[in-house]
Amino acid sequence: MRYLYILLFISFTSCALKQKQFSADFSSSSDGVPQLTYQQMLADHDSLISFFRQVSPIIYFNQEVRQIHFDRYARQLRKQIKPGMGMGAYLFIVEQTFNAAQDGHSNRLGSWQLDIMKSNWIPNGLVTNIDTSAISYGYQYENYANKNFSARLNLNLAYTNGEYYNLLPFSYKGQNYPAGMKVLYCNDVPVHQFVGKEITTISPLRWDRPNNRVYHERFYQPVQVFNQGQLKLVFEDGSAQKHQLIVGYKDTLQFTQKIVHPFGYNGEKEPLTTHYFERENIFYARMPLMIEAYGDSLAKKFSQLTAGNPVKAIVLDIRGNGGGSDNTYANFLGKIMNDTLKQDVVVGRNFSPYNQRQFKVNTDSVKNKKGFSFEVKVAALKAPDMYFISVPNFKFVTPDSLNAGFRGKVYLLQDRFIYSSASNLSNLASKNDQLVSIGETPDLLGGLQTNPSILQLPYSKIIFRIEPQIDFTGATKAADAFQNHVEYPVAYTIKELKERVTTEKPIYGRDFLYHSDPMFKKVLQLEQMNSRQH
């Protein structure tokens, strides 16, 4: 499993953005990116579309379940390729084609991924079909996109309870704006309607299923939302007073408070945090990332903090956990729990010519290999042709021979910033009585995925990845493949969220958890109910 890598890209419309608004185009020197002819651009883009159709099951899920038609957007984008187009404008079209797939595991490789590919994936034989002499172009594409395709404007917006709010008070050109204002309009369009049309602009848009809308907290950064260099927003404060903001593309806001604790995915240096709450007999552990060594570290902390003390409940705080290895939580839970956590797993992949070569399958092997089939008993997609891999009683957690035999509840605190293996742990809770999930759903497609296919376009040499697998485990309808669950929904109010990001107190410290954290308070409430029942 991987960490989530979110890309913020822009849709190209001939009426909204001209190539002349970009900085100087790519260098035509010998070490610059390839300079493509019109016909080469068309062939290059056709290859991109073909790769998505063959590899990605997600574009078919989006079409059937979310009415996001990748092919329709891709055809429209292809028509915007014109004779004499520079490589900057062509890259812009390619970027929005990735966005049209609306998949967090399908995108052009960024600099840090290119670094890993050179140091790990290629030497270890995980990537074999890349022209390594062209890897340097990837850094040039990344640099160009960062400089040209999005504004630096930061409004510090948060989406909670179905609406956008500004977290911090700010000033702009002598006018003061309070914190906690709700966003009503963007460029004179109701904000939810505006964001709903940004399919080729930002990826991945999160799917708020209860409100049946997509959202993104940085919807205002794409360059083309700035009409003649300006962006217009209308807010409403708590007294129903309207506030209008017209801000320039290169402008910044002056915030009168600072964010102490960012609300989002955790950084790689975030530490493990553990507590033992003596009165409630609760062991608490914050797991910021799914790093394998953390599993053993937590088991040692558990033994140290609870030695000679009763433990009625365990809290695993995975808020902001972007993923890593499933072995992380498996190692810890295996050392404390008495029961095996298992379920019947069913995943699907496109049965396409590319995938048949990549995964070394054909009709005969699918029919004859154990666990492989063309039909399954769970719900799947109407298209494309797929083959399935079924693993009965797949073991996510196996008890250690010296496990602590813990039989109380294990509470998972989650927000929408969980992904990959962290999301898998959340999904386990929906199918196991001992695990209990509290908080928010991630609103991104989850489930068991595999290493993305690393691909390269033939003429531009753009290197990118596509997720080739989708999880149908337990699905009774196609939409269930979204695999987002929470048993006890708890959303932050904007007041709680503002306090959370601005307080000087450690938000994973004992005092803040106990007195100011609505998700931890839900644990205390549920434990009180359990005590009364027993």
From TrEMBL:
Q: Which Gene Ontology terms cover its molecular function?
A: serine-type peptidase activity
In terms of InterPro entries, this protein maps to: ClpP/crotonase-like_dom_sf (IPR029045), Tail-specific_protease (IPR005151)
A GO BP entry is:
proteolysis
Q: Which Pfam families does this entry report, sorted A to Z? A: Peptidase_S41
Q: Which segments constitute the Tail specific protease domain?
A: 282-450
The organism's place on the tree of life at top rank: Bacteria
For this entry, the protein name equals S41 family peptidase
